[in-house]
Amino acid sequence: MPETTLDLAFKGARDYLHGTDVFNQTLSWLENALPDAPIQDIDFSFHHLARHRIELILGALPEGVEAFAVCSFSQAGQRQKAYLIETEEPVTGRYPYPEDEMVAPMEYDLAAKRGVLRGSIAYSDIEVWVAMTKALHYKVFPQYSGKWLFVRGRFPRYSGHTQADERTLVIAASFNDRLTRSEVLLDGQKVGEIYFSIV
């Protein structure tokens, strides 16, 4: 049962590990651990926040252990799961994350629940998608005072840094305005879905 400890740090002033870092490092490790075929049909879900160092387990989850996140995926026609487990070890690092600057040029169409970001971006695709989703949610749902969090990402394929002239995010469905599903598009082509929930 392959496993590893992910070396993650807090982003900005947060006291929890950011879902984008967990997502990126998990997929990076899986691609290195399973190099024979592409990682496809990714369904990455978070059950709660993690505030300590985390371990990744590929295969069966040990009995009595609860995962705070699960990455389901296909490789060579086989469906597999990687489980993320929160340990009791403290997170020791922290680094700046200018999320507001990233989405400052974003254009909004609130009636269509759509946001567009143009030009090249230095951050990873999932960081951009999550930042765009968060920014759009606070404008579309101003009546809520809670915190919107990234809880699920679904991608047929994922590339960490895709070149695109235009990134579009559309809130496609809202479940009692507490859980949403957004579609993400690169140059007009849908490439995945992001789910957010408010707490």
Spell out the blueprint of helices and strands.
Elements: E1 3-6, E2 10-11, H1 19-33, E3 40-46, E4 52-58, E5 69-75, E6 78-90, E7 94-95, H2 99-103, E8 107-109, E9 114-118, H3 125-140, E10 148-155, E11 166-175, E12 179-186, E13 189-198
Parallel strand pairs: 2-7
Antiparallel strand pairs: 1-4, 3-5, 3-10, 4-6, 5-6, 8-9, 9-11, 10-13, 11-12, 12-13
Q: How many runs of DSSP E, i.e. beta strands?
A: 13
Distance between the termini: 34 Å
Number of helices: 3
With strands numbered from the N-terminus, the spatial order across the biggest sheet is 1-4-6-5-3-10-13-12-11-9-8
- Percent helix, as a range, is 10-25%
Strand pairing plus helix content: what structural class?
alpha+beta
Average pLDDT across residues?
A: 94
Beta-strand content bin: 35-45%
Order of helices and strands: EEHEEEEEHEEHEEEE
Model regions low in confidence, pLDDT < 50 over at least 5 residues: none
Radius of gyration, CA atoms, in whole angstroms: 17 Å
Overall, the morphology is globular
In short:
This protein is 18% helix and 43% strand. It has helices at residues 19-33, 99-103, 125-140, and strands spanning 3-6, 10-11, 40-46, 52-58, 69-75, 78-90, 94-95, 107-109, 114-118, 148-155, 166-175, 179-186, 189-198. Strands 1-4-6-5-3-10-13-12-11-9-8 form an 11-stranded antiparallel beta sheet, covered by helices on one side.
